[in-house]
Design goal:
There is one protein chain. By secondary structure, the protein is α/β, with parallel strands linked by helices. It is built from 6 helices and 10 strands; from the N terminus they run ααββαβαβαβββαβββ. It has a single domain, classed as Vaccinia Virus protein VP39 (Rossmann fold). The protein starts with a helix and ends in a 12-residue tail after the last strand.
Length: 205
């Protein structure tokens, strides 16, 4: 599959054209290892080192579409990985803060974002389950790793009123969910089965 085939496939699925254009603007080949650049536009996950993967582009596009971004949002991205998800989010948001626990992946993602000419992303090394309270609240939160059990409370606390959190939740199976905040209430909707690497949390001391 090449770039145009992928974009055509996204359009056939009825995704918001703004999201398709966001995917089109990000050079995905910059976010995969050099030896895999010939496969960059395949609609599948690829290894990026440190036991992590870059998610399939159609899933990234679907998750971004669920966030319903309009251009002025402050977005928190949990699980930077290659930086690709943050790069697509950055096409539709005012600014993205992205957190990764593997420093070596953050370094690679920083270089990829720079090469792609994307300058509205701030990268942080740390435990994403704590969020990034320094810049909270966020209009939207993306979690690109499977959450075992409930969504970490710090992420819920850092979501602005009226905001959306998109995350894969793992219980008996793994489901992509959207949590919409209305005051102290969170309305949940389910959006199909998915498969992600797990969200690794620090153990309490």
């Amino acid at each position: 599959m090449d770039r145009e085939e992928l974009l055509s496939g996204l359009r056939r699925r009825g995704l918001d054209e703004r999201v398709v254009e966001a995917v089109a603007r990000v050079p995905r080949e910059r976010f995969v290892p050099p030896t895999l650049r010939g496969r960059a536009w395949e609609d599948g996950a690829l290894p990026i080192g440190s036991g992590q993967t870059i998610s399939q582009p159609s899933l990234v596009a679907y998750m971004v579409a669920l966030m319903d971004l309009r251009g002025g949002e402050r977005v928190l991205d949990i699980g930077t990985g290659s930086g690709y998800h943050a790069a697509v989010l950055a096409q539709l948001a005012e600014h993205v803060w992205t957190i990764e626990r593997h420093a070596e992946l953050t370094e690679t993602a920083t270089a990829a974002l720079r090469e792609a000419g994307i300058d509205n992303v701030t990268l942080v090394v740390g435990d994403g389950s704590f969020g990034w309270p320094a810049e909270a609240p966020y209009d939207a939160i993306n979690v690109a790793a499977a959450v075992e059990g409930p969504v970490p409370q710090p992420l819920l606390d850092q979501l602005a009123d009226g905001g959306r959190l998109v995350a894969p939740l793992r219980d008996r199976d793994e489901r992509l969910v959207v949590l919409c905040r209305e005051g102290d209430r969170f309305e949940r909707s389910d959006h199909g089965s998915v498969r992600f690497v797990p969200l690794v949390r620090e153990l309490p001391s």
